[in-house]
Write the structure tokens for this entry.
Amino acid sequence: MSFSLKTHVTRRSRSGSGEAVTTRVRPYVRLAVQGKETVYIQEGRFYSEGGTEFTDDNLPDWIDDEVAKMTVAARQEVGLLGDDIGSNKKSV
């Protein structure tokens, strides 16, 4: 699935009420370093400001340092392996 700032995926209730029901949550983290390109992480993947997915070959060199600053819980929320501090290994 591609990157989206829409973190809650919803559908209409089947009960007939028309109420929105959350079916999935897709949290993301925005990493910004002054003078560098902004990077988003969602579902274990890294994206540019424009939504283009980075490959392992073209990730900015500062990513490992910024990911290492995140808590284990935050890394897990966005799909990164929580115990690999500073690793770009994806859990998906």
